[in-house]
Write a structure and sequence with these properties.
Blueprint: E1 16-20, E2 25-29, H1 35-41, E3 48-49, E4 63-67, E5 73-78, E6 84-91, H2 105-112, H3 122-132, E7 136-140, E8 145-152, H4 156-168, H5 174-192, H6 195-207, H7 221-226, H8 229-239, E9 245-251, H9 255-266, E10 288-294, E11 298-307, H10 315-326, E12 343-350, E13 355-364, H11 370-386, H12 390-406, H13 411-424, H14 431-438, H15 442-452, E14 459-465, E15 472-473, E16 515-518, E17 524-529, E18 535-542, H16 546-549, H17 557-564, H18 574-583, E19 587-589, E20 593-599, H19 603-615, H20 621-638, H21 642-654, H22 667-672, H23 675-685, E21 691-697, H24 701-712, E22 735-739, E23 747-755, H25 764-774, H26 782-789, E24 797-802, E25 808-816, H27 821-837, H28 842-858, H29 863-875, H30 882-892, H31 895-905, E26 912-916
Parallel strand pairs: 1-3, 5-9, 10-14, 17-21, 22-26
Antiparallel strand pairs: 1-2, 4-5, 6-8, 6-9, 7-8, 11-13, 11-14, 12-13, 15-22, 16-17, 18-20, 18-21, 19-20, 23-25, 23-26, 24-25
Helix pairs in contact: 2-8, 3-28, 4-9, 10-12, 10-15, 12-14, 17-20, 17-23, 19-24, 25-28, 25-31, 26-27, 27-31, 28-30
Family: Belongs to the peptidase M16 family.
Protein name: Insulinase family protein
GO molecular function: metal ion binding
């Protein structure tokens, strides 16, 4: 049930966070250490099962708290960033409380909360969610189950009414569970198809053997087959109670009025006597070694330790230690510039009684990971023996404290910070962590290092890349002659308290719109002033296209250049540059897409540093040799990686032979590159007249302009303006390719076709409306209803339109068991054909319009979302008020226009199908 939930904030060079959501497990990339690998493979490694790891406190002067007579704790945090509100209901129950033999009971009950309650059917719930914008989520952890809504402020009461109904009772019928079981079992199979997930579960089993912490919330197919509706209802009746819940509300709300609504809706729900919780008894940690194959293009070496838990007095010191070891100034990350590792990082996660931490390094395919494990252990032992540098401890403390202010820049992040503090950590406020961190001393950090980073009991793991077999043309394209009659969409009557959500939502013009400026050197500057925090966020992009701009036989030059920016500027080398960032607790990334997040008082210094790095990169010779070798190693691995082969197969089938979009770097082309090639490419591509900067935060347009001109004003463009847009192409022919992937149990299927339509075509708007009838609001949309709710064939299915200025792609992604690939595709084709031949219902049309208009409103729930939105519009040469204009256009779209657009552009029989996994059936 994934929505466009707020992106996990960047935190030093962490790994990726493994975050279980009700809709799926998905991976979020953060930081620097894994950055270069992510550009090759996208998803790297998922290990932590959590909510916001290290997402710490957001201070706020307007916080209202209360505990109702039935025990429900309520926290309301006022934030005026946007006219939206996030509600999070935190039930203090998770996989720890699952009955023996049924590890996924809490997860299953989370799913069933969307399958109907007394007074609220699943169809009604889906329709309400869609009408409010479809921004909803849920997740299950070891000790917590959370339910999220982010809605326009006028829909807050409806969202709270939904949660109150769900807190009062559950249906949990055997019939509904029988329908949902197929979907949740597909989720299990999906994750068991991921070697990284398998490693995470084995690691948890070793770290916490014999305790409830040893298993995550996912569950197993075998246990779900034995689960009944009655068992689920008992679990709900035992644990879902107001006195076992915390409600957090954050957004642009009136606290007193909101509290009155909460009391009216939740106050009469009876409290319950809660069962005893299973004890968490941890036995002494025993060392263990694990080896697994993976479908990545590189190997991973991991060393894991137990770490202070949330209830430990050493928790704050552990957080600081983790940040220190993840620093780009620390010895672990130094393996990368030394050419000894492709990436290196350190991270930690805390459960109440105990936590864990891990150091991770990537190595090239074909190498042995054991020496890397020993290298990691040696580095960790060095810190244990010699102590942690005090300057890194102070930098880590500054950074953690700065995150408190950054947290105010996201309505959803603010709600999550309070939920994390109260529901997971057991604090009275997020401020508690900040106060504890500020008191951490060097002795505290070194004591934690000595007590927890013990190599003799460490768990080690090596993931060795397993090459894919060669892609082959599929004998079974996944199409079938089986006939499926489309179901008629039922008209759903909403409860009286939710009837208003179907009314069209008006998108008002913002009183203080962005200021759009053009600097003398051709750079575009967009500034949006917000006052929700004392911070400034900057996002910039140098418009570029390596497929057109890289000289012949110089493929990969852009990859090497991207890897060299982290080596500082001509004025500040790598370590000096990072130290300067640490002094102001700034988060910075530099490349064709660059960003800065900094407190207002350090905005000038932050812009000075990012401009120095971007405009005057060091590009040192020795670093070039290291990055060139790393890039070549990664490319050699990716050529046999299933993930890369899937993308390559799609492009080859979609684009004409010799199309520049088919160019890609190979080890041999990278090995022939020189530093001069990289320097020449930099000067040709990085130009102010191809650059847009967006600044959002507590800064006026005048202040932003002065600062940007001060540090970017002398940057000049030379030579002719480069071409960055591909030429239009004709439509593709149908094809089917299978990329063998022995790591997968479930098939991952991508259907794509090229469209002649571009973003400027008026059919863009009816296509978007139709797309949101197919997908985007869970069971209220056709694909989810037909493929998941009704048949249980898939766990996730998403349709998308990748629209460009000169060429576009329409696609559908889904995952299912091999015998069901053709069945699922047949339903997809049927639903698409139905869109071309029949008029969508008035209810579907209205719902899709509302969903799109709400998305416009909800796109401004964070400063990063606002900044990236303006940046995307600028890159497409669209007016900055295009979302408001689009909302008006969506409201005027007719069912006939939707049918005509789908008839004109979508070709269900001409998909390119690429399947990763076993041969589809």
């Amino acid at each position: 049930m994934e929505s466009a939930y707020e992106k996990f904030r960047r935190k030093y060079p962490p790994l990726l966070v493994y975050w279980h959501m009700n809709r799926n497990y998905f991976y979020l990339c953060g930081g620097y250490a894994m950055n270069r690998i992510n550009r090759y493979t996208g998803v790297v490694f998922a290990l932590i099962i959590c909510s916001f790891v290290g997402a710490h406190p957001a201070l706020s002067s307007e916080v209202t708290k209360a505990t109702l007579k039935n025990g429900l704790r309520v926290v309301i945090v006022q934030n005026s960033l946007a006219p939206v509100v996030t509600t999070q209901v935190n039930y203090l129950v998770g996989s720890n409380e699952a009955p023996p033999g049924f590890p996924g009971m809490a997860h299953a009950q989370e799913h069933m909360m969307f399958r109907g309650n007394p007074g609220l059917s699943s169809d009604q719930l889906s329709s309400i969610i869609a009408a409010m914008g479809g921004s909803f989520n849920a997740q299950t952890q070891q000790s917590l189950t959370q339910y999220f809504f982010t809605v326009p402020v006028e829909d807050m009461e409806t969202a709270l009414h939904v949660e109150a109904v769900r807190m009062r009772g559950i249906l949990d019928s055997d019939k509904a569970w029988g329908e949902e079981r197929g979907a949740i079992e597909q989720e299990v199979v999906q994750d068991l198809s991921d070697p990284q997930y398998i490693l995470s579960t084995r690691l948890m089993g070793k770290l916490f053997e014999g305790s409830p912490y040893a298993h995550d919330a996912l569950g197993t197919v075998e246990s779900f087959d034995k689960t009944t509706g009655a068992m689920l209802k008992k679990f709900y009746n035992d644990w879902y109670a107001p006195n076992n819940a915390i409600l957090v509300i954050a957004g642009n709300v009136d606290p007193q009025r909101t509290m009155a609504v909460v009391k009216r809706l939740f106050g009469s729900i009876p409290r319950k006597k809660l069962p005893a919780r299973p004890p968490i008894n941890l036995s002494p940690l025993k060392p263990a070694e694990m080896e697994l194959d993976s479908d990545l293009s590189y190997g991973l070496a991991l060393v894991a330790y137990r770490f202070p838990g949330l209830e430990s007095p050493d928790y704050a010191a552990g957080m600081v230690l983790s940040d220190v070891l993840s620093s780009q100034r620390a010895h672990l990350y130094a393996l990368v510039p030394e050419g000894k590792a492709l990436s290196a990082s350190f991270d930690s996660y805390a459960l109440p009684k105990m936590g864990y931490s891990f150091a991770l390094a990537a190595f090239p395919r074909g190498e042995d990971g054991r020496p890397m494990v020993e290298t990691i252990k040696k580095i960790i032992q060095g810190y244990v023996t010699n102590g942690v540098p005090s300057e890194l401890i102070e930098a880590a403390k500054r950074h953690e404290i700065a995150q408190a202010e950054f947290q105010k820049n996201s309505v959803e992040g603010l709600a999550s910070a309070w939920s994390q503090a109260l529901a997971l950590e057991g604090r009275s406020s997020p401020d508690d962590d900040i106060k504890a961190i500020s008191k951490v001393t060097v002795d505290d950090v070194n004591r934690v290092a000595r007590n927890f980073l013990i190599n003799d009991t460490a768990i080690t793991a090596i993931m060795t890349p397993r090459p894919s077999g060669n892609p082959v043309e599929s004998k079974n394209s996944g199409r079938t002659n089986e006939s499926f009659a489309p179901k008629q969409v039922k008209r759903v009557k909403l409860p009286s308290w939710a009837a208003h959500v179907t009314k069209p939502l008006k998108v008002g013009v913002t009183k203080e719109g962005p200021v759009d400026l053009k600097l003398k050197n051709g750079m575009r500057l967009i500034v949006k002033t917000t006052r929700t925090s004392d911070t400034v966020t900057l996002y910039g992009r140098v418009k570029n296209n390596p497929g057109l701009e890289a000289p012949p036989s110089k493929e990969g030059v852009d990859e090497i250049l991207g890897g060299l920016f982290s080596y500082g500027s001509r004025r500040l080398d790598r370590l000096a540059f990072q130290a300067s960032l640490d002094e102001i607790a700034a988060d910075v990334e530099v490349g064709t897409l660059f960003s800065l997040q900094v407190v207002k008082g350090h905005f000038d210094r932050g812009v000075e540093l990012i401009a120095d790095n971007l405009v005057n990169p060091a590009l040192p010779e020795e670093a070039f040799k290291v990055v060139q070798k790393e890039t070549s190693s990664l490319l050699a691995g990716q050529e046999t990686s299933p993930k890369w082969l899937v993308g390559r197969a799609l492009k080859t089938a979609l684009y004409p032979k010799d199309d520049p979009a088919l160019r890609y770097a190979k080890p041999e082309t990278v090995d022939r590159l020189t530093l001069t090639d990289v320097q020449n490419y930099y000067h040709a591509v990085f130009r102010p007249d191809m650059t847009t900067i967006v600044v959002v935060g507590n800064v006026t347009p005048e202040e932003a302009k002065v600062t940007i001109e001060k540090y970017f004003g002398d940057w000049k463009a030379e030579g002719p303006t480069p071409e960055t847009e591909y030429q239009p192409i004709a439509g593709n022919r149908s094809a089917a390719v299978v990329v063998p992937n022995n790591s997968r149990v479930q098939d991952e299927v991508t259907l794509e076709e090229s469209l002649g339509m571009t973003r400027s075509h008026p059919d863009y708007y009816p296509l978007q409306v139709g797309l949101h009838i197919l997908t985007g609001a869970f069971y209220a949309t056709r694909f989810y209803r037909d493929l998941r709710e009704s048949s249980g064939l898939v766990y996730t299915v998403e349709a998308y339109l990748d629209i460009g200025k000169t060429r576009s792609i329409f696609g559908v992604d889904y995952g299912c068991n091999p015998p069901n690939v053709s069945k699922a595709r047949a339903i997809i084709e049927r639903d698409l054909t139905d869109m071309q031949t029949r008029l969508v219902t008035p209810e579907e049309l209205s719902r899709a319009k509302n969903l799109l208009v709400h998305e416009v409103v909800l796109s401004n729930t964070s400063t990063s979302g606002i900044a990236m939105g303006f940046l995307r519009l600028s890159q497409m040469d669209l007016p900055l008020d295009e979302p408001t204009r689009a909302a008006d256009k969506y409201q005027k779209i007719t069912a006939t226009q939707v049918r005509s657009a789908f008839s004109r552009w979508i070709r269900p029989a001409e998909f390119v199908q690429v399947t990763s996994g076993p041969q589809p059936q």
